[in-house]
Prior knowledge:
Distance between the termini: 11 Å
CATH superfamily of the largest domain: Dihydrodipicolinate Reductase, domain 2
Structural class: alpha/beta
Number of strands: 19
Mean pLDDT: 94
Low-confidence stretches: 307-311
Radius of gyration: 20 Å
Strand content: 15-25%
Helix content: 25-40%
Amino acid sequence: MNxxxxxxxxxxxxxxxxxxxxxxxxNNFKIIKCADILDSASKKCAxxxxxxxxxxKKLLNDKEIEIxxxxxxxxxxxxxxxxxxxxxxxxxxxxxxxxNLNQGKELVKLAKKRKLFIGNAPxxxxxxxxxxxxxxxxxxxxxxxxxxxxxxxxPGVQSYHPNPEPWFAQKEGGxxxxxxxxxxTALVNLLGPAKEVSGSMMRGVKKRIxxxxxxxxxxxxxxxxxxxxxxxxxxxxxxxxxxLSFDVIAHQRNHxxxxxxxxxxxxxxxxxxxxxxxxxxxLGQPWKEYKTEKMKLGKINIRSKSLRANxxxxxxxxxxTGLSEMAYCIExxxxxxxxxxxxxxxxxxxxxTMKASKTGKKQKITTTCKIPKRFTEKEIxxxxx
Length: 385
């Protein structure tokens, strides 16, 4: 039986519900206390889930808490993660790990110095879709992957989030900060580390209207690019064209396509855990479907009414997997997959994409990381209820 780690949540916003829902899937962590810079938000969360509400300071000093779950807004990720490490807590943060590379490097160095675990979302690459794709690539079914194409595009965060302003307030960021981590982490998991990137950007709509929640109908100013087009060259010489946009009403290509020497492959939406993988090995032949619904982290468990252009109404959502896998690795002294080095490399690609798009000059990726090992069904069973 696994140890159940006691988790303290900082940041009681929109995404918190997802992690509380994860309790019914995973057997080795429990969120027992929460905090937020807004005391009212913390108390509301505590009341809803039957846990204790504390100030951020008291939560960080609480000796009962072993892992800090950092669900604050992106610009606060670094500060909260650093404080957690300085209080000798392991920390798992929502993506991205920080908003600039130097902050990310500092966090990785600090965690290593204090012999603590630092982990980061996204963990969707641990799901059935990406793991089945990894298996197919490792079996060399489509041969050496030369090229690829990936698209994330929808109208913007304001269409589903009640407080979208922070995602548009930065001078640089937008979709590359918000959704880039899903696609880039999936790509690194499948192809290995990136080598260089070039890109371009635009700001499509200068003012947005909040679509849901108490501020529905409110207009706010956009201060960052809302579309990025990048070309990424990986160390294995694969070239990927990546589109990230908050300026598209609808599309039908929310997946990754790989073009190999022996065939082509469709990797399902990296924003989700499940979805079928498709392979075509000869022109004119039908695509072969590899279903993931019988995989532990591919089984359909949500039926959503979401209007997000990138989100399937029926899919698998097991967010919290990364936190659970990290807890298991802490207990068993193993290297976790959603680790600091991987997150730092993804942050490097993000920052380099923004710089390349702003300057028009190709940027070298200065960090690297090891390719995460495939997450086997046997390993997954160990952390599931």
